[in-house]
Design goal:
By secondary structure, the chain is an all-alpha fold. It has one domain. Helices cover about 85% and strands about 0% of the residues. The longest helix is centred in the last third of the chain and has 36 residues. The radius of gyration is 20 Å and the shape is globular.
Length: about 300
């Protein structure tokens, strides 16, 4: 029953992330907001709310003081906030700007497979056969999304493809950069400070106070959906799920996010997709799922070996 609860909560998190992408598409395509402004406001809004929650719950902890006094950790935090979170969020919304939330989310998820290549290079080790298959599927899926199978045409705009691929690269940096910080200070503090640093950085370089924005009820509601539902609520649900079923299983379930983004985009915004879009999307999602399944198998194998050693 406990595991079922963990799976259910993680599914909710994936659906919320998919919903957030659809709200982003609505703000960019229907309300014509600037993606730089939306990204900065989303990050700052989520960061401020989460920081207020942490301070009200625990006050300023010794861990926070240690983080803010350690020059090396501050440098790592700035790199994570700018090259990890901010880069990931901004490239994702730019990809939505030139395509739609479903396509952008699928392209971003190809970063999961790109991460395999980076990890193999860092180890160093040769990739497993299943990892090679995952990379091939990701490349094939991207090709199908971009060309619909016709090598002589480009269905996606060059801008959409470029931003989508940059989003995949940013997924790698967003995954690897916070690892030492998370080990030392925990995921909550790392992400909150990363959101604040990244949001402040984007606000300054794009001077978001000079960007004209018309805030009506629908716009505020969509921003609420992105910040509260798609960032704060989704993040907390995912962490709860991770604590119950483990990070690898949770990451596998999170592969539902691109599917949710496509469905929400079709239902709420009337975005149209053709058969080749679904095939390409399914191919990339399958590639990401294979990576998580391999990790799950390796984790179980390691657990069995440790159990045998004790016996």
């Amino acid at each position: 029953m406990k595991n079922f609860k963990g799976y259910f909560i993680t599914v909710i998190a994936a659906l919320c992330w998919g919903f957030s992408g659809t709200m982003g598409e609505y703000l960019l395509h229907e309300k014509h907001l600037d993606p730089n402004w939306v990204t900065a406001v989303r990050m700052l809004g989520a960061g401020v709310i989460l920081m207020m929650y942490i301070l009200l719950k625990n006050g300023i902890t010794d861990t926070q003081k240690e983080l803010l006094r350690d020059r090396s950790s501050i440098i790592q935090l700035v790199l994570y906030g700018v090259l990890g979170l901010a880069a990931n969020q901004l490239t994702y919304l730019q990809a939505i700007q030139y395509s739609n939330s479903g396509t952008a989310t699928v392209l971003q998820y190809s970063g999961t497979v790109l991460l395999v290549i980076v990890v193999c290079a860092m180890a160093p080790r040769l990739p497993f056969k299943t990892e090679v298959i995952a990379v091939a599927l990701a490349l094939l899926g991207t090709f199908l999304l971009a060309t619909h199978g016709n090598i002589n045409q480009l269905v996606l705009t060059q801008e959409a493809l470029i931003w989508g691929m940059l989003s995949a690269v940013a997924t790698v940096t967003n995954t690897l950069l916070p690892i030492p910080l998370v080990k030392k200070y925990g995921s909550s503090l790392t992400i909150v400070y990363g959101l604040l640093v990244g949001g402040l950085f984007l606000s300054l370089i794009f001077s978001i106070w000079n960007i004209p924005v018309q805030l009506d009820f629908e716009t505020i509601l969509a921003l609420f959906g992105m910040i509260v539902v798609g960032t704060i609520f989704a993040y907390n649900m995912f962490l709860i799920g991770v604590n119950i079923i483990g990070s690898i299983k949770a990451s596998l379930i999170a592969c539902l996010e691109p599917v949710a983004a496509i469905v929400f985009s079709m239902l709420f915004l009337g975005t149209s997709f053709v058969a080749m879009d679904f095939i390409g999307s399914a191919t990339i999602v399958s590639a990401a799922a294979i990576v998580s399944i391999v990790d799950l198998i390796l984790e179980k194998k390691k657990d069995n070996e440790e159990l045998s050693a004790r016996v």
